[in-house]
Specification:
heterodimer, A: about 280 residues, mainly alpha, 12 helices, about 0% strand, globular, B: about 240 residues, 10 helices, elongated, disordered C terminus
Chain lengths: ~280, ~240
């Protein structure tokens, strides 16, 4: 699914965007476009710091010596600054290649995930952090809407031809956050699910499935992915045993979920943005 | 010296029957999704790595988190930075190995490495010199000039690392596009690259001449032989 499929009538307008000021100037120049690309990336990094700290604080990690509201307040100007720079540079990049964004599912994913992330960061996190952990009725409703939007974006990400592999980023980011910050029970459950998945895929790859010669290369990569997956699990098991036991996080589960999904939503926006370039038109 | 070693790394390990296209490096570069996922992970790891460094540097500059002692912020955020750095390094090394010769002769890759070293030197300098009298300024909203200087160097160096990293994916200042005698040509040690291209061209011309001799028909004017195959970093459609 992409914007071209949703709004086919807009095609002439989208095509005409490439001639709108300042797109021709950017295209003429050899250095303005790279400058925009670099600025967009630097603003993304700033956004990263400014959304991670309040998100993690709601999960009960990171800057726990400050109240959630203090962390949210300290990072807010940087969040807003980064968002403004990202919007301006993003719009300019879009003006230069409007048809690319129009025809690629990754851009639709990015827009929907962005709506979710904006609602979560600017609405829900601000409200919950501002009340130092109390989730108001309004915040719950906003979080519900954002969660639905985010789920829709991940669904499109994972099922769109070309962009689908990029959904792996979301899976791995979520997995890493839960394994690093989840409660003991959550970590055991997720670890078990992962081990079962890797063993299952291993049985299918080595035992049941007999590939044709054409698929040898893919299967070779598959085998390497399995070996790496097994290594990763072994590493995490070691870490589980080696790390000093810390007290379980004391923040309420709902706050922890809000923090987790805010971070995940922003990573979805960033990953989909990268896959606009890495994928092809749907 | 490194050129030959990296050429070997790109062509030989993992290759079956001496075919360079089957080496690990080139299989990875030509993989269906693995290369793109590694590159995507490299970019996303920046959010964790550089995003957290930025927040600590802003505290050192006295701009953000002024009410928090520096040591508290640093202790809480450093694990995230280290995790991000580990991820960025692993994926970065893998990406380099996907096309080592190309990156080795990339102006931007070399600039990036230089500024990674600058950032690392700054960390050591800060750690051993400035942090010695940490107790004096730890809780001050605006730390002394030496601390601010270290933070300024850190922010500037990491910004340049990210910018050069981004530019590596574009085709500016590649050896084929730089005239001999320019700074970039010397900086990227383009000599062996151009020699390789010339050898390929000469070989292609020879083959064409041999083919023309064999055929009695009039041959078409020789077209420019295609230079070295496209690097994965250039696959990105940045039209």
């Amino acid at each position: 699914m992409d914007f071209a499929a949703l709004f086919p009538d807009l095609k002439p307008w989208v095509q005409s965007l490439a001639t709108v000021w300042p797109a021709p100037i950017i295209k003429e120049s050899s250095w303005i476009f790279p400058l925009i690309l670099c600025t967009h990336l630097l603003a993304l990094v700033t956004l990263g710091g400014a959304m991670l700290l309040p998100g993690l604080r709601l999960m009960g990690f990171g800057m726990t010596s400050l109240s959630p509201s203090a962390v949210e307040k300290a990072t807010r100007p940087w969040l807003w600054g980064a968002l403004i720079v990202l919007a301006v540079t993003g719009l300019l990049m879009g003006l230069v290649n409007p048809m690319k964004l129009y025809s690629r599912p990754a851009f639709l994913v990015k827009v929907i995930a962005m709506a979710a992330a904006l609602i979560l960061s600017l609405g829900v996190v601000r409200s919950v952090a501002g009340r130092d952990g109390v989730v108001s009725q309004n915040a719950k409703i906003m979080a519900g809407i954002a969660l639905l939007l985010w789920l829709a974006s991940v669904l499109i990400f994972g099922t769109s031809y070309g962009a689908a592999p990029g959904a792996f980023h979301i899976l791995s980011v979520g997995w890493l956050i839960v394994m690093a910050f989840g409660s003991k029970l959550t970590r055991i459950v997720l670890g078990a699910i992962t081990a079962i998945t890797v063993v299952g895929v291993g049985i299918v790859t080595y035992g049941i499935y007999h590939p044709l010669d054409d698929y040898d290369l893919v299967m070779e990569i598959n085998r390497w992915t399995l070996r790496l997956g097994a290594l990763l699990i072994a590493g995490f098991l070691l870490w589980e045993f080696a790390r000093t036991r810390k007290a379980e996080p004391t923040t309420p589960p709902l706050n922890r979920l809000i923090g987790l999904f805010t971070i995940l939503a922003w990573f979805t926006v960033a990953a989909a943005g990268r896959w606009i370039g890495l994928s092809t038109s749907g | 010296m490194f050129h030959d070693l990296l050429q070997w790394l790109q062509d030989v390990p993992g290759a079956t029957d001496g075919d360079p296209a089957t080496s690990w490096s080139q299989q990875f570069a030509g993989s269906l999704h693995l290369w793109a996922l590694t590159e995507g992970t490299h970019v996303l790891s920046l959010i964790l790595f550089a995003g957290t460094i930025l927040m600590v540097d802003l505290r050192m500059l006295g701009i953000a988190f002024r009410s928090v002692p520096y040591s508290t912020l640093n202790n809480r955020v450093l694990p995230l930075t280290i995790a991000g750095f580990a991820l960025a390094t692993v994926t970065g090394v893998l990406l380099f190995l996907s096309n080592p010769v190309h990156y080795y002769h990339s102006v931007f890759f070399r600039a990036k490495v230089i500024f990674i070293l600058v950032a690392a030197a700054n960390i050591f300098w800060f750690h051993y010199r400035v942090q010695k009298n940490l107790a004096e300024w730890d809780t001050r909203p605006s730390p002394p000039l030496a601390v601010k200087l270290a933070a300024g160097v850190s922010i500037s160096a990491w910004i340049l690392v990210i910018v050069f990293g981004r530019l590596m994916a574009l085709s500016f200042f590649e050896c084929e596009n730089m005239p001999k005698g320019t700074f970039g040509y010397a900086f990227a040690e383009c000599e062996p690259v151009m020699r390789g291209i010339e050898e390929l061209e000469a070989q292609a011309a020879e083959e064409e001449a041999a083919a023309a001799e064999e055929s009695t028909e009039e041959s078409e004017p020789a077209e420019d032989p295609a230079p070295a195959e496209e690097a994965p970093a250039q696959q990105e459609p940045e039209e």
